[in-house]
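Researcher: For the record, we're logging two predictions in this thread. I'll number them. Prediction 1 follows.
Model: Prediction 1, sequence and structure:
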Amino acid sequence: MNKIIYIAIIILILVPFDIWNLPVVTAPVALLAGLIFAFTCKNPYPKFNKKCSKYLLQVAVVCLGFGMNLQESLRSGADGMLFTVVSVVSVMALGVLLGYSLHINRKTSYLISSGTAICGGSAIAAVGPVLKADENEMAVSLGVIFILNAVALFIFPPLGHMLDMSQAQFGTWAAIAIHDTSSVVGAGEVYGEQALQMATLIKLTRALWIIPLAVVTMFIFRDGSGKVSIPWFIFLFILAMVANTYLPLPEWLTAALVWVARRGMVVTLFLIGASLSLATVKQVGVKPLLLALALWVVISVSSLFVVLHTID
């Protein structure tokens, strides 16, 4: 029965209800459905969820590039990219110091800081093998980041409207303050088209920091044998933007690819939500959650202040 419910939900998410002027399943609704499914039914496909959500996210992001103009995106995202440099370095430094003061495992605090500073679970998954983190350290770090990431998807769009933020302001803020690319894109889509494009561009630029962070991590932990997972799909996303900007692609094709991107992202959020379990929540612990929450508040408030005062 669980398998039938699981497959039925995914089919409902993919159905283009807007053809009949009915509301489609949005990103927050999909994530909520996944969370409800995880806590009420045993996930029948845990391994499938993990792999599928990873690759489906990458495909969706690349397809989204076919709906964006490279020149316009670079012009609008310049301010957010500059703030990215400062925020990544400062969050990493603050996270390590707070982790030490809270007496949290060194590797766990480093992973949580990496996830907050760059791109959530993707950064943790990339840096973890470099510093030889064990299964428990990875599970705690991914768990605490996921919890806050899920919360962000629900609260950021209402906060943006309450603060009367423009599309550019919200897209920049979401890209910097929300952890995972999936929730950044989901929040941007809920807020508006320009916010979606801005958030995606800045977040993927931020994700490229995985590469220098992994190199620095090798020196800090004195072990050069760890493997670095480079997010190659980001370069495909850039190529998609270049193709959409400079090649005479038919409108029906780009529209179809963008539709695939948006539906794929919503399915990804359902799969991510369905992957959470009570065991993961219990494993997190109070101190790692406090560290992640403190870093999240710092990056959210500071980036909000900068965005509201520098971007129109």
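Researcher: Logged. Prediction 2.
Model: Prediction 2, sequence and structure:
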Amino acid sequence: MILLKNSGEPIYQQIADQFRQDILTGRLKEGDYLPSIRGLASDLKISVITTMKAYEMLASEGLVTAVQGKGYYVNAQDQDMLKEQHLRKMEAALNEAIDAAEIAGLSENELKEILDSLIRLKREKI
């Protein structure tokens, strides 16, 4: 797990985001347990409270469930819900890219060309 301590984003948010990404992409599957709160806090050299806050965020989103004495495990994911979450994330990223392109003075065609190039590059890596 990579934490950016100088980032404007809180540590607990970074932890939750990385676990969310792992769950939504299938790297963490239904029934998998997250690292223990104390263990993760120790590994990352952060507060147990920070780790607990990240896990509680994931639980409030329905991604994980706490089991007394065992920790947090990954819930089954509804594929329609997963698709919707990915669409929202994609729309947010594309809106941010559109805003950046406008600030940079790029035309719509230039932005589309950049997107097409990135898609081609991604496919070549696969």
